[in-house]
Every structure is written in C-alpha cells, then in structure tokens.
C-alpha cells in the first residue's frame, strides 16, 4: 500500500535519540564538542517550485507518486515546513581535505530531517542539501545553486541505475531565491538561482565523523558512535567488542573497494575524495565537481580546484580510497589497540579491489573469467592503446562488443573491426598506421582469448552490454539540461533522468544521449572544467 499523505510516513530518529546533542540551539557558527549533532531549523524560502523528483526513491519511502506533486511535498522538501516527527539537525564531522587535516567541518549546508522506516522495515535517512546555514557552515552560506543541485540529483539517480552504490535523491526544488557564487574563484561573483535537493540514504555517516572525535581525544564518544553505527547500520555483526570493531572495519574496506571498482568500470571521477566525503556504507556521496571520462585518460580530473596536483584524478581513485581507509583505521585504533587486524583489513581492501577489478575487466571484455597468464597483458595493452589517441571510453566498449571474435580475424575482418571502432574516436586525424597495426595486434590476441572461452557472439554481446553502459551522464549533457533549467525549462532534466533509467539498453530516438562530447564542449565551463563552487 502506497502512502497518500506525508503525515503517514513513520519516523524513527535513532541518530538523534541515541547520540548526544549539542546543548546550544542558537544557529551561530562554532566548534561543537562532546556532541554528534546540533539542532537547526531549515531556512524558509519565498517561492519554491518542484523541478523534478525520483519516482523510484518515492517508492523506497512507500510514497504514492501523487504525493510528490503536492504543494505540501514541495514545501516540506524545500524546508519551509516540518512534518510532526521531523527533528532537523546538522551533524559534526571533520576530515582530511586534499591530504591535510582540516579539523571540524560538519554538515555546513546539509540539514537532516529524520529517519523513516518503510513497510519493508528499511531505514532511510532524509537530508536537505542547500536549506540554509548551520553551526558548521564556517564562512559559507549553507545554500546551493540550481546547477550543482541538478548535477547532484541527476547523478545520484544515474549512478543507482548503473548499479553503483550511491546516496539517492528524492527531489529537486528551486527556491525562487538567488545565491551569489564566484564560479571560478576569479573575482566574478554572479547571482544564480538557488535550489534544495532531498538526499536519501540508509545513513550519511562519513569517515570524518570518527576522525574528528579521535583527533579531539574524545574516546568515549568515539566508542559510542561506533557502537551506534554497528548496531544500526551493521546489525549482522552482532555483539560489540574490539574484534567486532575490526570486522566492521574490514567490511567498510570491502564495501569501499567494491564502490571504487564500479567507478572505474563506468568512468566516474568523484573529484573531491576527501575523507569527509567517504561514506562508511561504501556509497558514492557528495556530488560536487565530479565528471565522466570522455576520452579515456587516467590523469583526468574535472575539478579545477585540484588542477595543480590532480590528487583525485581517475587513475588515482583506488589508491586514494586506500589512503582514506588508513585515516579511518588511525581514528578507530584507540578502540582496538592492535595494529595487525587493521593492517589485515587494509590488505583486504587491496585484495577485494584487485580481484574485483580483474573480474570487472573480464566482464567488460566479455570473458567468462579472469585468467592471469593471458589477461593481465591483454588489459594492460588495451589501456595503453585507449590513451594513444583520444578514444571515448564508453563508446569504445559498446562498439567492441559488436565485433564478432568467436572465430579468428583475417585481414578483411580486422579492417571491418577498425571501421566499427571508428565511432569512438574524437580526432580521426590522430589515427596513424602504427596505431592501426598496434590495435590490430591487440584485436588478434583478444579474439584468440575469446575463442578459448567458446562463448557465442550473442552471449558475449549481452555479457558486455550488461556492464558497459551506453548512456552515462556526460558532462556536456548535464550542462545542456542546466542551461535550459536556468531559463525555467525543466524538460532537459526530465528527459535525461528518463534515459538514464536504462543505461545499458539502446533506446530508440535517444542517440543524442549517447553521442560523444561535441567540440564546443571541450573547453566550456561546466562541461570539462568544474570547481568546488556550488
Ligand atoms: P565539500 O568538500 O564540498 O563536501 O565541502 C566541505 C565542507 O564545506 C563541508 O563541511 C560542507 O558542509 C561545507 N560547505 C560546502 N559548501 C558550503 C556552503 N555553501 N555553505 C556552508 N557550508 C558549505
Ligand atoms: Mg562534503
């Protein structure tokens, strides 16, 4: 039975009921000690309008879609009114930003509304992003602009449909008020339309929640938070003890490794993998200056704030996650007091990542299993070839599936194969005969490897197309939808959301959404370059 009115949502606010609150209730910026959260009211806005909602997330909350079209829904999820059992709060956390300890950060523009228990007994926390300042807003305003809210809304849902663990987005609501942003921090502030996204996840706890308590030496509260987290989000781990803490950390390591394998599979670059942006549930969280690889380039990051060192470039993501887990290990060490089990868990990350990556690559290439003595070289050579000339990663794998490799490839078939792959190149003039020879050699080895697998071509196609998406949220596609939305036309958002619901299935009339980046988007702000300004 779907719920027809918001008042029927069932709340069970465990986070606020179990953990200590900041006694101060005035909303001024401050350091908060001995508490996990501060109570705070969302800011009221003058003219909210529903831009989009996710019917799948509404369904998770048992909400009938008609509820999402009501005036009450818009006013509730922009923060103008509260349901009876909502107890809004912002949580306290710290983190390492770009490798350096930053001290207290906290929910500077996220306001949690409470936790819902749905009819399947699942717990879903609701959080507004951009609903006004909190004690953790530091020098910023607690608001969010439409462009970054569109990006967060669409990408959360796109990632889910791709099968990547992620926080979700219920709604995107424009506030009717302007927010001033200096998009590239270069002295050009501009008024932009504001918006609020309602994010949804089983929990929004981050590595940084534990780190801040450890850094302050508040070990009692550190233990309390960990016990709370295990009993609420990891109940299968059972009794609370130092051994269970180690098992918990091992599970965090595994989940993080699985998430990163997915990012590498679909070509997602998070852009700001600071430890405050790492979820203990291994969910992709905090969509800021993220991007999607267009031409395959492990050195690419969309984040101009990280342009100098490119710490968070695509190819670094696996090592950065490992480093971040090391910081979480340091934080919980005082509760465990033994290094070896934490080290073992970190090894488990490396192991899970390596095995996951090998299997993921086998799937991307349509191979039944990973076979070390042939496939290591096969993958390595492919990843070199993809970088020799500008090659669209997404289209390359989809086109590769079309080449029948169930028998040997003669010269004619090799030339046909090259013609099939031609769609994936950005600059055809970059194709040289040396490049073609190298690609042909790789295709010969690959087809030999496929033949050893004895899988019929049709089977290989479906295996590959199930893991290699055709539609991803290309940076320029998001920007086109934003350009329209800023003019008050939300149709681009709706159309994108719809296509991205089935990213692996070719959809008629939707070629524009699988097209590689047009030339105009190469250097345009929002398409290839983004900053943390949002
Ligand atoms: P990020 O790296 O974007 O996830 O943000 C780092 C920290 O800055 C977090 O504590 C955020 O809550 C905070 N923050 C980012 N933008 C704003 C804003 N506009 N107002 C208040 N706090 C913000
Ligand atoms: Mg963040």
Key descriptive features of the protein:
5-stranded antiparallel beta sheet, 11 strands, 4 domains, single chain, alpha+beta, 40% helix, 12% strand, 534 residues, binds adenosine monophosphate, globular, binds magnesium ion, two-stranded antiparallel ribbon
Question: Can you give a write-up of this model?
Answer:
The chain is of the alpha+beta class. It has four domains: 6-207, no CATH class; 228-363, no CATH class; 367-454; 475-521, no CATH class. Helices cover 40% and strands 12% of the residues. It has helices spanning 14-18, 55-60, 71-77, 146-162, 207-215, 219-233, 242-266, 317-336, 340-364, 372-388, 393-400, 411-421, 433-453, 457-465, 475-486, 491-499, and strands at residues 37-39, 49-53, 89-91, 94-97, 100-104, 110-117, 123-129, 168-181, 190-201, 268-269, 291-292. The strands form four sheets. Strands 2-8-9-7-6 form a five-stranded antiparallel beta sheet. Strands 1-3 form a two-stranded antiparallel ribbon. A two-stranded antiparallel ribbon has the order 4-5. Strand 6 (110-117) and strand 7 (123-129) form a beta hairpin. The longest helix is centred in the middle third of the chain and has 25 residues, at 242-266. It is globular, with a radius of gyration of 24 Å. 46% of the residues are buried. Magnesium ion binds at residues 276-277, 286.
């Amino acid at each position: 039975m779907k719920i027809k009115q918001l008042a029927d949502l069932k709340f069970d606010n465990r986070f606020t009921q179990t953990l200590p609150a900041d006694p101060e209730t005035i909303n001024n910026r401050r350091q908060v000690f001995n508490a996990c959260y501060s109570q705070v009211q969302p800011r009221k806005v003058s003219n909210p309008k529903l831009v989009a909602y996710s019917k799948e997330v509404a369904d998770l909350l048992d909400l009938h879609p008609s509820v999402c079209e009501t005036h009450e829904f818009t006013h509730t999820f922009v923060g103008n009114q509260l349901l009876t059992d909502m107890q809004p709060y912002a949580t306290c956390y710290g983190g390492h930003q770009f490798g350096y300890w930053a001290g207290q950060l906290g929910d500077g523009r996220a306001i949690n509304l409470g936790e819902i228990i749905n009819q399947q007994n699942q717990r879903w926390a609701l959080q507004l992003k951009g609903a006004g300042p909190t004690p953790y807003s530091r020098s910023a305003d607690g608001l969010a602009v439409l462009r970054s809210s569109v990006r967060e809304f669409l990408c959360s849902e796109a990632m889910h449909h791709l099968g990547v663990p992620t926080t979700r987005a219920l709604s995107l609501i424009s506030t009717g008020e302007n927010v001033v942003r200096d998009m590239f921090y270069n002295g050009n502030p501009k008024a932009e339309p504001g918006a609020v996204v309602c994010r949804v996840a089983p929990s929004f706890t981050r590595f940084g929640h534990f780190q801040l308590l450890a850094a302050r030496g508040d070990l009692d509260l550190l233990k309390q938070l960990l016990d709370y987290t295990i009993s609420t989000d990891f109940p299968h781990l059972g009794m609370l003890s130092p051994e269970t803490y180690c098992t918990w950390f091992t599970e965090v390591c595994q989940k993080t490794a699985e998430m990163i394998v997915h990012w590498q599979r679909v070509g997602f670059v998070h852009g700001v993998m600071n430890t405050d942006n790492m979820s203990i549930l291994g969910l992709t969280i905090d969509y800021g200056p993220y991007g999607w690889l267009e031409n395959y380039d492990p050195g690419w990051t969309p984040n101009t704030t990280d342009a100098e060192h490119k710490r968070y470039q695509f190819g670094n993501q696996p090592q950065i996650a490992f480093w971040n887990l090391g910081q979480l290990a340091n934080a919980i060490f005082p509760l465990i007091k033994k290094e070896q089990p934490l080290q073992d868990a970190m090894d488990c990350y490396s192991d899970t990542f390596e095995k996951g990556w090998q299997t993921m690559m086998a799937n991307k290439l349509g191979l039944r299993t990973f076979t070390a003595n042939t496939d290591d070289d096969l993958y390595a050579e492919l990843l070199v070839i993809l970088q020799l000339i500008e090659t669209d990663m997404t289209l390359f794998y989809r086109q590769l599936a079309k080449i029948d490799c169930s028998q040997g490839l003669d010269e004619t078939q090799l030339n046909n194969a090259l013609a099939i792959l031609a769609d994936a190149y950005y600059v055809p003039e970059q194709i040289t005969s040396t490049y073609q020879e190298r690609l042909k050699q790789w295709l010969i080895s690959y087809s030999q490897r496929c033949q050893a697998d004895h899988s019929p071509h049709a089977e290989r196609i479906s295996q590959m197309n199930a893991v290699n998406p055709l539609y991803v949220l290309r940076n320029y596609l998001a920007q086109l939808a934003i350009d329209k939305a800023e003019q008050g036309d939300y149709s681009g958002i709706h159309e994108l959301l719809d296509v991205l619901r089935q990213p692996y299935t070719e959809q008629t009339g939707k070629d524009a959404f699988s097209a590689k980046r047009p030339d105009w988007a190469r250097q345009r702000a929002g398409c290839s370059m983004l900053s943390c300004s949002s």
